[in-house]
């Protein structure tokens, strides 16, 4: 049955929990990357993390012993910057996030504004503080629209499960009554952008991820074949919590290598 999955022309892969945990490469990943290159598969690392740029992600994989082109990465930060530039070209934003998000917004023609921005944008960050929450709340109540790079409440790291963007945006949502618009998976916008970047049709593509609530539902709603790996935040016991199922369940991406 895995042969049908292996025969796909293109693969969209999550990173955290699929390729690595923090700075630890997961088992079978080097063999999987070699297989993608050897079989001349189209592939894209699609991550809801907004902290790093594609260049930084390429360099991170290089440090872990993997050689992947910068063009093989697409992040929720890039998707968010693209969405905002289409909604309000050359706008401004107050950002709670890391350089990967700020740089993506700059490159999309946005400026950083902490007095009267068009948007308050929340991404994954360790530079989170009460002062920033307070500022964001004031700006949203003054009319700025609230945007989240991704809805993930948690994410995996080498230390275990840590808070992600959905959790960081929650205090602002609760205080203002505003509901953030999340651009990353499972938003179909992110998936359509990924298919365009790959130059492939959904029928010839599969998505591999470790989260039922983002990766797998994103594939199902975009009619892309899905494979859940158990190397991240999900285990078999959690499957009963969801009204949908992945097309395949793998221990890790190494299972795809014949």
Can you give a write-up of this model?
There is one protein chain. The protein is α/β, with parallel strands linked by helices and 258 residues long. It is built from nine helices and 15 strands. The strands form four sheets. Strands 5-4-1-13-14-15 form a six-stranded parallel sheet. Strands 7-6-8-9-12 form a five-stranded parallel sheet, sandwiched between helices. A two-stranded antiparallel sheet has the order 2-3. Strand 2 and strand 3 form a beta hairpin. The mean pLDDT is 95.
Q: How far do the termini sit from each other?
A: 12 Å
> What spatial order of strands do you see in the largest sheet?
5-4-1-13-14-15
The rounded Rg comes to: 18 Å
What is the name of the CATH superfamily of the largest domain? Answer: HAD superfamily/HAD-like
CATH fold descriptor of the largest domain: Rossmann fold
The CATH top-level class label of the largest domain: Alpha Beta
Kindly state the number of beta strands: 15
How many structural domains in the coordinates? 2
Low-confidence stretches: none
What general outline do the C-alpha atoms trace? globular
Q: Could you spell the SSE succession in H and E letters?
A: HEEEHEHEHEHEEHEEEHEHEHEE
Task: Enumerate how many helices there are, as a single number.
Answer: 9
What is the arithmetic mean of pLDDT?
A: 95
From the coordinates shown, what is the CATH architecture of the largest domain?
A: 3-Layer(aba) Sandwich
Structural class: alpha/beta
What can be said about this structure in brief?
With 258 residues, this protein is of the alpha/beta class. The chain is 35% helix and 21% strand. The protein is globular, with a radius of gyration of 18 Å.
